[in-house]
Amino acid sequence: MDRDEENYYGKHGEPRKFDPKFRGPIHNRHCTDIICCVIFIAVILGYIALGVVAWVHGDPRKVVYPTDSYGQFCGQRDTLNENKTILFYFNILKCANPVVLINLQCPTTQLCVSKCPDRFATYIDVQASYRYKPDQWNYFRQFCKPGFNNPRKSVAQVLRDEDCPSMIIPSRPFLKRCFPDFSTKNGVLTVANQTTFKDGRGKTRNVTDLREAANGINNVLDARSVGMKIFEDYAISWYWILIGLFIAMLLSLLFLVLLRFTAGVLFWIFIFGVIGIIGYGIWHCYWEYDHLKGIPGSDLTVYDIGFQTDFKVYLQLRQTWLAFMIILCGVEIIIILMLIFLRNRIRIAIALLKEGSRAIGYIMSTLFYPIITFLLIAICISYWAVTAVFLATSGEPVYKVMANQTLCKYANLTCDPETFNTTNVTKLCPGAQCTFAFYGGESLYHKYIFIFQLANAFVFLWLVNFAIALGQCTLAGAFASYYWAYRKPADIPLWPLFSSFGRAIRYHTGSLAFGALILAIVQLIRVILEYLDHKLKGTQNSFTRFLLCCLKCCFWCLEKFLKFINRNAYIMIAIYGKNFCTSAKEAFFLLMRNVVRVAVLDKVTDFLLFLGKILVAGGVGVLAFFFFTQRIPVFAQEVPMLNYYWVPLLTVIIGSYLVAHGFFSVYAMCVDTLFLCFCEDLERNDGSTAKPYFMSASLHRILGKKKLSSKKA
Q1: Does residue 147 share a domain with residue 123?
Q2: Which tens digits make up the pLDDT trace of 109-128?
Q3: What burial class does residue 115 get, using C-beta atoms within 10 Å of its C-beta: 0-12 exposed, 13-18 middle, 19+ buried?
Q4: How many CB atoms sit inside 10 A of residue 626's CB?
């Protein structure tokens, strides 16, 4: 009896917690963590209420439509701006860059127009010629304030009151806003093939003056063009992409089925391959070490030559190759010793992997449960995103004084556009206007919008973690039903997946919500730390950056640990039906009593599943590459004409990897569940007639226990 086996028994040699009536997942359960369940339901109801309030106060049109200086939406139906869908800036030179134009308010009058200007013109020139060139006036005044048609008004007063822009330049719409129509001619920046323009105030300026106001627009427009081509590729290749993902699904299923027969072979091929490669490395290091013997300078030490930027210099030293050889020998010896002392545990891990493949074969419906988890998470993401948008767009139009004079004391103060002309502001600051600034408010609701956004993010994390927990508990209950079936598959209950799902929802919503709550709190703290790190990136305080880095690292480790504990706690909940804390404690100590087996099983499982993902994604990717590049003669005529063949290719590869990950996550949950059941089986039973093992015959043979009962399948 080895040390691990001794841990399964008490001081008097009796198995721990033996219950002769235990036959797998308990069906006579009671509700667990009721308080947390009530809180969870109340939070969901509050979350729904928050969404309703946000939908009442929010207006997504503020995101969809640009807003003019009067707080009116451009292109909104049943308004005067219905046919005016584009925002025009009177003086774009006052705008710093496109980010300011999109997210903030540019300090110039903004007007909704039906189309952007397509020519150069100034108000001075148009006014001077309006009598004999009325067409020019009629074209120019469509970019003036609505209703303005007084060309006799002095230029100074028009520009002061901003009735019309001082100039218009050829523009094109981008994000429903007019930006200069930049182009490059012989390496020179131009607008409509011109390098200069009149600013309407008596100066001739170079178009490079517009560069800062529209910085990066050409690159973004080019990106939009590429985006349109990518969309076209998706539109004509989606059918073949779905076929590729279907092939990935079939390959994933095939790999899981074949693991029953190939898990051991794949693992040992890899292990002996690593041993062989390291052995070759040792031989090569010795060959280099012996080959450099007698060569001048090769007997120098690393200390003698000091630090060199050309690392090839170190490869000319015998000492370097001797150090490499010693390191590789140490690694080789460690691997061989681990294989010698852990061989039995490795065999158990491989046997559990094969058993997992057999379990999935009997409960095939579990492979498609990730679709339910995906749908639940998709619903959570959609609700969170919509609520966040409505919260962000909650508020009433806020107007501020915009003055041409820099010394105006009323500049940037809030104002009321309906009473603005009756105040003294226009007298003290000639040309000042009351224009729309942003959406906000002074009510209690508007003051706490940031808190509501945090609550929205927190409940979103809680619900997502709950959906994942529900999936893990459901799958664990189904696979535990398989393990604790004495005669497989005859004793496996009918519809084990649906029964497990019902038990999890009916009895353990509180426990699952409790585990998800703990994880959501840690994740929210990590989000806040990332936000603070982003805000403090420019700071020169080294201690602050160091502290944030340490906190981020600690909470990352804590999240990983909690995910591990929660996963195994949900397995124990699925089996015994106890509350979260008790299940987490029992799972933790059970794993600690089998810590070596846990480590070996975890690494063997990770390796085989990673190999499976690479094989599926790589195999389907190679097939897709040959197809979309017309290298398969049989299907050459079926290949769609694409702008970029890598668009569907990358989609197929990434999609195949995600499909394989979905299937293999079920397999990983199956193996983890079977492992905990296996450990419980060893602690509860001894293989006798009175207390028979529930494990498979292969696991029993590896342990070298007493002969299984003849009833055992």
Answers
A1: yes
A2: 788 998 899 888 888 888 88
A3: middle
A4: 12
